[in-house]
Description:
Layout: H1 10-29, E1 38-42, H2 49-52, E2 61-62, E3 74-78, H3 84-87, E4 95-100, E5 106-111, H4 121-133, E6 140-144, H5 147-152, H6 163-169, H7 173-178, E7 183-186, H8 194-205, E8 210-213, E9 217-222, H9 225-247, H10 257-266
Parallel strand pairs: 7-8
Antiparallel strand pairs: 1-3, 1-6, 2-5, 3-4, 4-5, 6-9, 8-9
The site of zinc ion has 7 residues, from loops.
Amino acid sequence: MKTSVLDNRAALAAAVNQVAEVAGYLWQKGWAERNGGNITINVTDLVDGAVRALPAISEKKAIGTTLPHLKGCYFYCKGTNRRMRDLARWPMDNGSIIRILDDCAHYEIIADNPVMPTSELPSHLCVHNYLIGKGSTYKATVHTHPIELVAMSHHKPFLEKDVLTNILWSMIPETKAFCPRGLGIVPYMLPGSVELAQATIDAIDDDYDVVMWEKHGVFAVGEDVMEAFDMIDTLTKSAIIYRDARSMGFVPDGMTQEQMKELSEVFHLPK
Ligand code: 13P
Ligand code: ZN
C-alpha cells in the first residue's frame, strides 16, 4: 500500500482534503477547463518534526523573487498542468508539499511525489509572504477562471475602480455581506509572471480579498480554501444575475447606494 505524508496526520489531511473538495467544485462550476486555476495553502502550522525532517525529492527550484517572511514555511500546491477534476480525487498525485529554503528565494518538493508546483507559484507565494508580513491569519490562495466574471472583465468601463464591485454588490444583498471588500482589478499581465504577482499584492493591499486578473480569472485569499471559494462563488452569483437581467432585455436597477449603506451599517461591514 502506497504511503502518504497525510497518513496519521489528521489536521494536514483535513486541509489538503478541503483543497480537493474545492477543486471538485471549481470543475463542477465550469471554471476549471483542462488545468485551469490553481490553489495553494500554507500548511506550516500543520507539519510536525517528522515532516520537517523529510529529505527533498526534487532539485532546488528558484521562486523568481525573494520572500523573507516565507523562510522555513511549507505549502501544499496544485501541480502545474494538472487538472482540478483529477486533484479533486487524488490531491497528493496532482499536487505536492514544498518547503521554502533559508535563502527565501528557492524551494524544494518534499512529499508525496515530485509534482512541479503551479506556474502561478510566484503570485501565490508573493501573496502568502505579504499576508504573513502583515500578520494575517489567512492560509489559502485560490486562482480560478469564473466564466461570467471573466466575461465582465472584457468591458473597459467595468475596470474603473469599484465599478464592478458596485454592480456586483447591488445585485443581491448577500454579495456585499459575504464579499465585503469587493473586487479589486489587476490589468492584464502575462500569466505566471513576477509582475502579475506584484500587481496582485498591490491590489490586495488596496483592501480586497478577491481581485480580477483582467481577461484571465480571479485570485482570492481567505482563512481557508472554502472561504476563498465562497467569496468567488458569491461574486459570480451576482455576475450571473446581472447577465440574466441583461439577456432578459433590461439593465438591472440594482440596490440603491442607500440600501447598500444601510447593509454596511447593520452588518458592520468594512466598506
Ligand atoms: P497551472 O496548471 O500551471 O496551475 O496553470 C493554470 C492557470 O490557470 C494559469 O493561470
Ligand atoms: Zn489561470
